Amino acid sequence: MSAKVALVTGASSGIGKATALRLKALGFTVYAAARRTVRMRALESAGIHVLSMDVTDDASMSQGVAEIMARSGRIDVLVNNAGYGSYGSVEEVPLSEARAQFDVNVFGAVRLTQLVLPHMRGQHAGTIVNITSMGGKIHTPLGAWYHGTKFALEAISDCLRMEVEPFGINVVVIEPGGIKTEWADIAAQKLREMSGEGAYASQAHAMAESMVGDDSRKRQSPPALIANTIAKAVCAHRPKTRYAVGFGAKPMIFLRRLLSDRAFDGFMRMATGMPKLR
Question: CA–CA distance from 259 to each of 107, 114, 134, 180 (Å)?
């Protein structure tokens, strides 16, 4: 039997890059997709196929899937990893930025899923892995749009799982905690740009520091931990529906279930150094 074929988005760095390398080491034929292909030469050197793909561009995604089918004839695994964190107060974040956050984190993943599903149904086999976050189960200050995308992808994954199970297709959600990637730096930068001045400035600076401060960085888990978890899921005959992994993921999700809304609000204010309520 020929090697199974995997498509990994957001593969130019972090979790996506680590996942592409891990699946390649396990014998998969791997297609690594991202906009910044110049950063993917190490993946090419490892024998991974590099695709230029923008998950907000339908033609780009359609062309990528068509290229995989033409070269390999099948798609066994889709890892929807592309995404970023857009932070800022609900009052101040322009709806254009909010839409951009949903375009990347939700609609890009869903559209790519739509494109691969006919091929997986034809095979009567496949695994779709959606990278959400512990942020798909909890909330943090000034993160409404980011958390909104992750809550949405969690719900979509649950519905999708029930729809495609009769066709032999698995849907897996990975909920990372704090991971050593570029995510925190980008999110903190967005936060300062959107809410670093004005009424929410004190909250914004406290939250940004909690993302990128030394204490936070010391506790973050390596991307390889998530890559290994994804590999475990896609190699399992019957994978779990969800894997919460990485710094803080399991305890934070547990606390959210345990505490009332206001008690969790208070905990998050304390944990992120938010100004005290008047």
Answer: 31, 37, 16, 28
